[in-house]
Amino acid sequence: MKSVVINKPGELVLQQRDIPQPAAGEVRIKIRSASICGSDVHIWRGHNPFARYPRVIGHEFFGVIDAVGAGADSRRIGERVAVDPVVSCGHCYPCSVGRPNVCASLQVIGVHRDGGFSEYACAPAENAYLLPAAIPDEVASLVEPFTIAANITAFLKPTTRDVALVYGAGPMGLTVVQVLKGVYDVSRVIVVDRIPQRLALARASGADLTLDNGTTPLAELLNGEQPTLIVDAACHPSILPEAVALASPAARIGLLGFSGDPCTVTQQSLTSKEISLFTSRLNSKRFPAVIDWMARGIIAPAKLVTHSLPLAQIEEAMTIFEQDPQRCCKVILTVG
Ligand code: NAI
Ligand code: MN
Ligand code: ZN
């Protein structure tokens, strides 16, 4: 089979490999499509602290089960499935409280173990979720990025009365916007970015107001309006102090970033408004919810897709994704 391998930081190759055999409890998936995420580029560039090399990258993928390992149900052969990349132990403290996404021995497919930019991949059977026919092949790999939005919004508990502010209109910000509008029916969703084309995508995804903070500070653009719910999907360390200053009393703020750089917030700025802070990493068993949302058409993943290329053109696809954020949002890789 052909697989996209990052041999070491900076070295991406399309490699001929043996088709993997599913281990006990695993299924093997013949992959039909995958999508590119910022973290794939970070592994390529050597900027992902969790990555081990050489690695077959890709954690957003879907396909058809074509083999099962010992103990896995062989009746599942032929199922169309999306694969949850979060592999957890099931018995540590976080797993025991329903937080397998921060399992003490967390393994992420495509990061810690070989992933889905490949013709075949293996995964624990319980990580492979049956897709209904209502979800077409073209968007089936996009379940995973929406689980990020599902996870953070589960903490934030949006209501129709919220005035939401989303920082960043990249793929992550857009999934959040779609979930806030389509799932939670939040009355007002404001998105801030400095790339006009991305703000246009945010409006297409349901944003009520978009603001360009490229030259004018956000505080000025908001004109006194105080968001009650804020999601940082831009993830620069300077954002949290600004968000805290702009937030309404009793607001909730959700953070998605992994920056190692410090940011400064005072206790007073948080406590005086009794602001709640939540962080969210990957997803804790959110595949069923997102599959349901997609099947019901209350989120629209196709609106994120700007490019589709065959797996063989991976380097070109990753380069467009990395270098052209004006035109590029989600890139679908077609396999086989
Ligand atoms: P992206 O880089 O495509 O999008 C970020 C957007 O934020 C860009 O459009 C950029 O112009 C905008 N931006 C940057 N600074 C800004 C500022 N100060 N104000 C307004 N807009 C600003 O990235 P993508 O793929 O959408 O991911 C966003 C972040 O989410 C990344 O930092 C990534 O590491 C993180 N992430 C976290 C996950 C988690 O589970 N916690 C999962 C996936 C991504
Ligand atoms: Mn992703
Ligand atoms: Zn665990």
From TrEMBL:
The UniProt record lists the keyword Zinc: yes
Domain Alcohol dehydrogenase-like C-terminal, residue spans: 171-295
Keywords noted in UniProt: Metal-binding, Oxidoreductase, Zinc
Example of a GO MF term: zinc ion binding
Cofactor (UniProt): Zn(2+)
InterPro entries in UniProt: ADH-like_C (IPR013149), ADH-like_N (IPR013154), ADH_Zn_CS (IPR002328), GroES-like_sf (IPR011032), NAD(P)-bd_dom_sf (IPR036291), Zn_alcohol_dh (IPR050129)
Residue stretches making up the Alcohol dehydrogenase-like N-terminal domain: 24-132
Record SUPFAM superfamilies: GroES-like (SSF50129), NAD(P)-binding Rossmann-fold domains (SSF51735)
Family that this chain belongs to: Belongs to the zinc-containing alcohol dehydrogenase family.
Name of protein: L-gulonate 5-dehydrogenase
The species this protein was found in: Sodalis ligni
Lineage: Bacteria, Pseudomonadati, Pseudomonadota, Gammaproteobacteria, Enterobacterales
